[in-house]
Amino acid sequence: MQIKSSYDVVVVGGGPSGCMAAIEVAKAGYSVCILEKDRDIGMPVRCGEAIGNEGLTQFFKPKREWIATEITAAELIAPNGKNIKVPFVHETGFILNRRIFDYDVSRIAVKNGAEVYTKSFVKSLIIDDETNFVKGVVVKYFDKEVRISSKIVIGADGVESRVGRWGGIKTTVKIKDMESCLQYSVANINLNKNQMKMYVGKEYAPGGYLWIFPKGDGFANIGIGISGKYSKHKSAKKYLDDFIDREYPDVSILSTVCGGVSCPKPHKEPINNGLILVGDAAHQINPMTGGGIASGMRGGQIGGQIVALSLKNKDYSKIFLSKYPEKMFKIFGNNHNRYYRIKEAIHHLEDEDFNYIANKVANIPENKRGLSDVFKAAVFKKPSLMIDVLKVFVGV
Ligand code: FAD
After folding, report:
1. What's the pTM?
2. How far is the CA of 347 from the centre of ligand 1 (A)?
3. pLDDT tens across 205-228, in order?
4. Least confident range of 38-52, 140-154, 271-285, 370-384
5. Nearest CA to ligand 1 atom 6
6. Which of 177, 179, 277, 284 has the greatest CB tally within 10 Å of its CB?
7. Mean pLDDT, rounded, of the chain
């Protein structure tokens, strides 16, 4: 199959957010192509691969091959080493095999009528000088430069997105909202495969957390995210290496991922004339957890639906496309703003506060404990968290 010179919609980036957007556009009967710079969809994996049950099942019935393990509890480790097990009563989670998952989501897009091209590096946008509307992209496809015209471009080019900037959308993130992340996928580790571990406190991960997500069979993702504010004093790598030397000196590291995860509030206006951004490119990651698979997919889905509507109405203007952020904020963006405020408050907690929270939760019998108890204890230490915690966790 050859790339055509014109589509209704061009999606830049073949991650889960871009593919979800393409599915919606294709389902509505419009022509759409997904351009991915790498030679494989879903590779390299730059992710801890954790997702909530509902986060995944709201889109698809999970295939067995997508799931490495099901997670039914978290172990939270306080700075004083106290280990609190919190069972997931209402919602379990999964550790995905994203190599397979991402691939399959792109296959679903193709089944619905989208075209996918790998080794397709988008170099710039085509912008009409007179109207200022985005009219397509210039792509380096193998060794050829191809101009593709479109009615709308969807920028789904991830955390390092350049499409937004090219199209006049300000996407710069403050350093304090950039988490510096490093993750190793390790073998030869003995873990309960249904329990994830999270370590907090200044010694483990200042302004962030350190995670162990088991994948079963002696395999796990061990990673760390620390606020950009702290990483200049001691790097994320040094924190993680010190931890592994101390706790799991016998593991072998099979793959390494490093990079920034931007954890600001969702972008208020990820749109311009003939252009929308979705997923990480639009800052749709949960700012508290750094998880962006499910919310990016939801952002992509909502964005794709509004793009289909704008094609139906033959109106590709920023004004029409503003229906997309409006809907996105109603569905999850307002909650992400609350998560952002909770994150800010958590960053101001001292190690003694985390120890206090751990002790308080430890006093609740294990079979009666839930994540909300952790946050209730946190509210006791930081009363300013009250309203956001209630809205997010109780939905009032
Ligand atoms: P991506 O998955 O990044 O896809 C963007 C795609 O665009 C890429 O394939 C890229 O190659 C392509 N692209 C970029 N520029 C161009 C261009 N010019 N032309 C063509 N293609 C281009 N989230 C969770 O939910 N759970 C986790 O456990 C988790 N752990 C994480 C751990 C780490 C270390 C990191 C870094 C992130 C983690 N995340 C996690 C975040 C999660 O990976 C992202 O939120 C998610 O992948 C966003 O999907 P996306 O489709 O928006 O972007």
Report:
1. 0.95
2. 25
3. 988 899 999 999 999 999 999 987
4. 370-384
5. 13
6. 277
7. 93
Give me the torsion for CA of 223, 229, 235, 240, rounded to 10°.
Answer: -30
Superfamily of 9-45+99-173+265-321 according to CATH: FAD/NAD(P)-binding domain (3.50.50.60)
How many angstroms separate the CA atoms of 266 and 329, rounded? 8
Spell out the alpha helix ranges (H) of 228-333. 228-231, 236-247, 293-312, 318-321, 323-328
Question: 266 CB less than 6 Å from ligand 1?
Answer: no
138 and 153 in contact (C-beta within 8 Å)? no
Q: Is the C-beta atom of 13 inside 6 A of ligand 1?
A: yes
Binding site membership of 272 for ligand 1 (Cβ less than 6 Å): no
For residues 28-57, average pLDDT: 95
Number of H helices and E strands in the chain, helices first, is 13, 19
Closest CA to 385 of 350, 347, 351: 347
Distance between Cα 305 and ligand 1 center (Å): 21
> What is the H or E stretch that residue 354 is in?
helix 351-362
Distance CA 294, CA 291 (A): 8
Residue from 11, 34, 37 whose mutation best tests the ligand 1 pocket (most atoms within 8 A of CB): 37
Class of 73-88+175-262 in CATH: alpha beta
Residue 394 has pLDDT above 70, yes or no: no
Q: Is the CB of 21 under 6 A from ligand 1?
A: no
287 lines ligand 1 (CB under 6 A): no
Q: Is the pLDDT of residue 363 over 90?
A: no
Does ligand 1 come within 6 angstroms of the Cβ of 12?
A: yes
Q: Report whether residue 15 contacts ligand 1, using a CB cutoff of 6 Å.
A: yes
308 CA → ligand 1 middle, Å = 24
CATH 3.30.9.10 residue ranges in the chain? 73-88+175-262
CATH 3.50.50.60-classified regions of the chain: 9-45+99-173+265-321
In this predicted structure, the answer to whether residue 143 has a pLDDT above a threshold of 80 is: yes
Query: Of ligand 1's atoms, which has the minimum distance to the CA of residue 35?
Result: 20
Q: Give 86 or 134, the one with higher predicted confidence.
A: 134
Note if the bond before 44 is cis, omega within 30 degrees. yes
